[in-house]
Amino acid sequence: MTSRLDASLWADQWSPRRPLATDDLTQGCWRQSRPDALTRRYLEHSPRALLSMLVIDVDHDDTLIRALQKPMTHPMPSWIAESPTGRGHVGWILKTPVCRTDAARIEPMRFAAKVEEGLRRSLDGDVGYAGLLTKNPVHGHWTTTWGTDELYELRDLAAGLGELMPRTLPRKTADSSGLGRNVALFNRVRLWAYRARLRYEDRQEWEEVVDAFALAVNHEFAVPLSPGEVGHTARSVARWVWRNFSAEGFSAVQAARGRRNTPEQQVAKRLGRTKIDWHALAEEATS
Description:
- This protein has 287 residues and is α+β, with helices and mostly antiparallel strands.
- The protein contains 11 helices and 8 strands.
- It folds into 2 domains: 7-164; 173-247, Orthogonal Bundle (Endonuclease III, domain 1).
- It has helices at residues 7-13, 34-37, 63-68, 106-123, 154-161, 179-196, 203-218, 227-244, 247-260, 263-273, 278-286; strands at 20-22, 30-31, 42-44, 50-58, 79-82, 88-99, 133-135, 143-146.
């Protein structure tokens, strides 16, 4: 039988070292020590480098019912933190966090974004939720209902969502929401950066240009990401591309491609893409 999470177990799984936190969202947030952040009403649920929790904002007065009603259309939540109005945040703790640094592979983040969208659909969550801060479930201002202490792999959450999980993410930047915005921003910036890198020789100028491009993309979202998140993505892409792309490297790649593209290979490719008249070839060979 699955046991329940509690405040101490949640705090053990909560991993940011210096999280953003605040008591009043209108006054902004700032990085604090873990003990100080735990005294705030709102705090950052995952480190910047790793996505360790998925959180859905439910802008309805029956959050608890939506989260726990049977039959459930989503896996059992880890916790539900409600305001006095019944609106709240519903969270799931990941067993294997998803990397969000410049060393990250895009597929896990894309998969996480689809899982998050499935959870949002199940709860009819707010598409405009920024996803950065959550209601602190161990703070006395909120009414917290603890769920399972099971840690979820993304594939387990996806299996539990069934048809609610989208097959693809929105193609248009403006239609992206939640983690989908991070994926869309990362994709747009990195694909642009691959092409633009060779035009810049000064690293500081390069990083400033990438940051400006990322901010421009961010304005396309219906609910933009925070400047801090945009800056983090821009720096990650800029530094990775600067390290891995150069004029010398580009020339080497082109040369390698040229060596592979021999005349014989060109003929084979051409024949493979066209309908071959075998009788004509046979007559030509014997003539």
